[in-house]
Amino acid sequence: MNASTAEIEKDLFISNKVDLFAGHDYYKIDDLLDEEHKMARDAVRDWVKKEVSPIIEGYAQAAKCPVHLFKGLANVGAFGPTIPTAYGGGGMDEISYGLIMQELERGDSGIRSMASVQGSLVMYPIYKFGSEEQRRKYLPGLGSGDLIGCFGLTEPDHGSNPSGMLTKIVEDGDDVILNGSKMWITNSPLADIAVVWAKDEKGIIKGIIVEKGMPGFSAPEIKGKWSLRASITGELVFENVRVPKANILPNVQGLKGPLSCLSKARYGIAWGAIGAALDCYDSALRYSIEREQFGRPIGGFQLTQKKLAEMITEITKAQLLAWRLGTLANKGEASPAQISMAKRNNVNMAIEIAREARQIHGGMGITSEYSIMRHIMNLESVITYEGTHDIHLLITGMDITGINAFQ
Amino acid sequence: MKLLVCISKTPDTTAKIAFNGENTKLETAGITFIMNPYDEWYALVKAIEIQEKWGGSVSVLHVGPSENDAIIRKALAIGATDAHRIDTEAVSADQVAFQMASFIQQHAFDIIFTGKETIDYNGAEVGGRMAAQLNLPFISFASHLDIVTENEAIVKRDMEGGTETIQVNTPFVISAAKGMAEQRIPNMKGIMTAKSKPLNVVTPQEYSPKISIVSHELPPAKKAVQYIDPENMAELARLLREEAKVI
Q1: pTM of the predicted structure, to 2 decimals
Q2: Is a pLDDT exceeding 80 seen at residue A8?
Q3: Which end of chain A is less enclosed by CB atoms within 10 A, N or C?
């Protein structure tokens, strides 16, 4: 679909519902943020209210990706905010990046996923592990949204165990021949380039940039998802794809390449989940004050107050966790295990708040009048992708005991 | 062209308004302040559009203490070139207009923009008062502005039931209404560059207040909706006459 068709299609999904979201900061965590952080958050919040909220329910219901938002995300600066400006990024710090993800996911986890993949899983490895030519060739286009990227690590039979991957490259003159397949790839059917992880003849994992149109490369869409319905997901299929050796990321080998990208994306998810939770809490709080039963607002009943009070308590804890993780990340000291803890805790916190918020909304909570059910369905993916809830627990377990319980 | 946009700080549109014990001052605790939307969405963006096409610079001017710098930085993030903050609390339209006009007198601007009004006091006074002090033409509530040459502009004002088209030579003061431009959300690049743009602090002029606020009163709370049986028109008529007092 070209941009103008996408723009026209957008009008079909516009709702006149007003997004009344207001942020919640029970512990005055804003005092810990600087002006840049707050401006970045407020700008993305405004952008989401203007561009995402009016259309997202329609797109999610129709299981369509609002493709025009790639350009919008790029314009607001959501792609690669921590990458230096010289390479098309934003030159911002980790807390700004986290807050951008929070606000995007407040709108929809699928929209946040579009940005996470483009920034953390495509721009980041090219910036971090790519040659200067690769950086110059791809990063500005990815930053401006002219190019869409995707990240190929997970395979049909290798999800939590990526080291068992079967996708492989075999040298052939100045090229390599790529064979294999990847599964659950966000953005893949739309992507112009894919950063693919594959084993070479010695079994060493390498990153390679595969371009759309290379013979033997296809990216079929995975249909029928009940989650992240506004985000497009597909496979990557490689049948004897000839890729120039110049497309191999020269500065990394082994699993630490893809895992460092995942740490970056998981860090963003730890913040993003707070956004989804804030949206559910904000809606539930407002609804509980407006909705009357037995002659008074349901927010006046103890059981509703218990739900709301626990929600804001858990959100506040998650905000502090994310802020501390952000300050560590700014110093380059956030360990993968610390990121795992935050991703696991915050996504679980969000899904539980979404479920409680759904109950407060009663029957209305299952309709697209409210964002709750969409968030619940989205978070079922978020709790599984980028390291499942259980795997992150085992990462913490291994970190504190020194004993690997994976195998 | 040298363009100036006067910006003001107002409570967020969703803020719950309350006053202090004597009802003389707004209770600011818990209120989020924003750039006045008419200044931001229409005046500032139009000035930036003109600068993008004609070159030159867009300065922003604000009267207020340093705690308002976040609003000024936002204007710089949206695209203004530099900023001037007159370092005194804004207390009245007369005072703000006097301080701003005194600053403008020392500089040469081709067009001086304000929003058509602030969304708190809705006075719509500052533009007119400044123009009077500066002895410049003033066009209020402008919905369109086209630059013809660097010295001449065509302005449209929406009026009751129609439109007025005005020719004006620079320099002039204009207050921007809806239609002038479309809101621009600052992007991350703008936010980062805003940090290094100049924000000059200006010492205020001596000013003696001419007015003081005696008190504020909130509008009466909205009453609950009353349902009346469609069969009971006599009761409807009675309520309209005796309670609503409209017939």
Answers
A1: 0.91
A2: no
A3: C
